Amino acid sequence: MARGMEFGGTRCGWPQALLFDLDGTLVDSVPDLASAVNRLLAAEGLDPLTRDAVRGMVGNGLRKLVERAFAARGQRLDAAGLDAMSARMTQVYGERLTEETVLMAGAGETVAAYASAGVGLAVVTNKPEALSRRILAHFGLDTAVPVVIGGDTCATRKPDPEMLHAACAALGVPASRALMVGDSAADIDAARAAGMACVALRGGYTRRPVDELGADMVIDGLAGLPQAIERLKEPA
User: 21, 28, 183, 189: which one is catalytic?
Assistant: First the structure.
């Protein structure tokens, strides 16, 4: 087990739960998302977007991704059109969900270590729950992560705190005993609204500089999470 894992799991009793974002935190899904977006655009006679362009559009769920992608091609979708294209995107993306998606560096080891340490684990993502569960299962993380709160699980999505509260309730842990780990403003803002400590990860999909998100700690990769936890104090 990596240095510091004991501290996160048992030595101080905090955090009792870790809530992870999915895209840009545990997995790099941009290649498959970009492929799906471009198949959707092509069906409408629109030019494709680069992966870098799509990377900057990820973080607020598939519906927002679709809206941003069509806007980038000069197409403003009305509510009905956005509903239809979002449903189509879910289908298209689901057909090739993990062809090029890979784990972020250290993700598998981090999840396994904290699960072994007895820390409750959840994924809290604006991606639909069913697709998120399929991705976790593909990488063999589903047994270690018993709780998955997706963008369609609750009435609201991050940055609203409802999803984080739902994850804590499912794990039987109060927000003050949990830590949110994510890569975007939606993650950090949701944690703040939930009264939860948070760590921001570099190299994700944030549209703002990660150091400006207001996280308690910023780490270069998941391998730095144990040391970040050691430096954090349990919230009052």
Answer: 21
